[in-house]
Amino acid sequence: MSVLETLTLDSGNEALQTAALALEKGLVLYFPSSAFALQGEESAFLTPAIVDPRSKNISFDLATDGLRGTVCQGGQADLLKSMLRRYAIFSHRLIERVLPGYVPHLSQARTSFRPVEAQGRATSYRKDDTRLHVDAFPANPVNGRRILRVFTNVNRQGKPRVWRMGEPFADVAEAFLPKIDAPIPGFAHLLYTLKITKARRSSYDHYMLKLHDAMKADMDYQRRVKQEEVRFPPGSTWIVFTDQVSHAAMSGQHMFEQTFYLPPEGLQHPELSPLKTLERLLNRTLL
User: Fold this and answer.
1) Dihedral angle of Cα 249, 32, 84, 28, to the nearest 10 degrees
2) To which H or E segment does residue 146 belong?
């Protein structure tokens, strides 16, 4: 069974009505031909030379108009910012079209552009996104909010974005939860007091972060677990809950990504969420 739920921007209402269920079951909403494309001089940004050596991607905050992670300055920075702003707007409009029930609950986080080749980048195992993982943020606890992401491949050399996609979230949790210790009382408060985290880390965030790290650390698991390779060609867009779908970005260059946060009350089927799955397996509340 494919992990992709293929749609088009002109899919009928019946198909779109099932999009949220497919997404919350752990599938990827896949649009083979999206409506986003580079304009005019923006093709000049298809080079890793524009990325600050201390960053792995360029990010933009629509709310503050802030740009990070680039060496571009002056007019070039303004043009780059304009390109990322267009993608932020495109992504939100796509969610409005495909997942309208989410819109009243969504908060839009950073937009990023990734012109650096994903394959062969030297990093620590925790930051190595070529290893299967579910997303969790060490410094930015989500406290039960879902991590919803929109991706678009704009590579002009015909190069796909290659992912590996692993087993369902419930199977991941069953495999690794027995190896994870419960949170240490007071530790989340200490991290927040020391400003190591931007908010107090919930028990849910604790287990999600430990799952993320344990998956990446276990190379035997990376090799033996049932997985599927998926190739997202240039011009395609996909939407996925990256906190639920086990994924690894193996290769590819020149991709946009938009992150949204969705609180539990915005879900159509909260019983399918990682939060409810972990609570069921641990037999306790995590928020």
Assistant:
1) -50
2) strand 146-153
Residue of 272, 257, 285, 287 whose CA lies nearest to 21: 272
pLDDT at 38 > cutoff 70:
yes
- CA-based angle 65:68:69, to the nearest 5? 155
DSSP for 123-190, please give it: --GGG-TTS-B----SSS--TT-EEEEEEEE--SS-PPEEEEE-S-HHHHHHHHGGG-PPPPTTHHHH
Beta bridge partners of 153: 255
pLDDT digits (tens, 9 = 90+) for 110-163: 999 999 998 877 678 888 899 999 999 999 999 999 999 999 999 999 999 999
> Quick one: three-class SS letters along 9-30?
CCCCHHHHHCHHHHHHCCCEEE
Q: What is the residue type of 161? A: R
Maximum distance among all alpha carbons in the chain? 55
Sign for the CA dihedral angle at 50, 55, 59, 65 comes to negative
d(CA 54, CA 69) in angstroms, rounded, equals: 8
Residues 232, 28: Cα–Cα separation, whole Å:
11
Both structure tokens of 98: 């495909």
Residue whose entry in the numeric block shows the structure tokens 């879902």 = 146
- What number of residues does the chain have? 287
The string over 173-212, giving b where at least 16 C-beta atoms fall within 10 Å of a residue's C-beta and e elsewhere, is bebbeeebeebeeeebeebeeeeebeeebbbbbbbbbbbb
What are the angstrom distances between the C-alpha of 189 and each of 67, 136, 141, 145, 198?
31, 18, 12, 19, 11
Q: CA–CA separation, 48 vs 36, rounded Å?
A: 21
